[in-house]
Amino acid sequence: MLFTTIIITTITALAVNAAGAPQTDYQIQETNDEIYNALPVDFHESDSYFDEGEPSLYEDSPVYKYSDDVQPEHEWIDMMAEHHHEVKLISRCRSGKPAFLYEGHPQPRISGTIQGPVRGGVAWMEGYDGAHCQSSGVNCGIVEFTLTNSEGKGMQNSADYSLLDGPGLGNHKFHYKMNFHFTGSCTKGPGGPCTGDSPQKCPGAYLGDKTEGGAPTQCLSDNTGITITFC
């Protein structure tokens, strides 16, 4: 009985204490703008917070430099402007159109002036009837050429006919007459047009599979051009 009385008394005491505990009433209060409004206006208006008389921390950063403020290096531009070569293509053929490309510029193009050196140039008749001429003059005769200033290194202008048709050499077959000569301060030519696939008919040409059998026309002069005539 004593044990039962103690349990009942304890439970009763806990219930009384819980009933008498204060209840917390949570409510959302509206923001009091008095503190915010008491701050200086320029504190929360960031556009006018910084003194306009003070220099910006970023004025010297290259990110904020205008391109007009940067002084370009003109030396290499002037050098390239003085380094120019005219490539003139003439066609007297009944079909097709002349084209050329050169190292670093694989898209066929027409006559024009090139700024900078022209290395590994190749000219041919594109679309010539019955010849199936492909890019770089594959299957057809070509004129190979390089136009460059000496640049103090003795680099020479060079051009030749090519009818190389050995394995892996482009299958360059004779289909049309070819001729060329340098223009500008150098006016050398190969000694005559290419009218066939023999040394007598195609002066200085590379023939068959003899990659070292030709005799290129060369000259040492600046800003040299070339005129290439087909048919």
Describe this structure in words.
- The strands form two sheets. Strands 2, 3, 5, 6, 7, 9 and 10 form a seven-stranded mixed β-sheet that branches.
- The N and C termini lie far apart (134 Å).
- The protein has four helices and eleven strands; from the N terminus they run ααααβββββββββββ.
- Strand 2 and strand 3 (105-109) form a beta hairpin.
- By secondary structure, it is an alpha+beta fold.
- Helices cover 16% and strands 28% of the residues.
- It has a domain at 89-230: Thaumatin (Sandwich).
- Residues 1-18 form the signal peptide.
- Keywords: Signal.
Assigned CATH architecture of the domain at 89-230 = Sandwich
Largest sheet: 7 strands, mixed
Helix content: 10-25%
CATH class of the domain at 89-230: Mainly Beta
Summed up, the helix count is 4
Low-pLDDT windows of residues = 1-79
Order of helices and strands: HHHHEEEEEEEEEEE
Total strands: the figure is 11
End-to-end separation: 134 Å
At the fold tier of CATH, the topology name of the domain at 89-230 is Thaumatin
The radius of gyration over CA amounts to 43 Å
Shape: globular
The residue-averaged pLDDT reads: 75
Q: β content, as a range?
A: 25-35%
Q: What structural category do the secondary elements indicate?
A: alpha+beta
Signal peptide: 1-18
Keywords: Signal
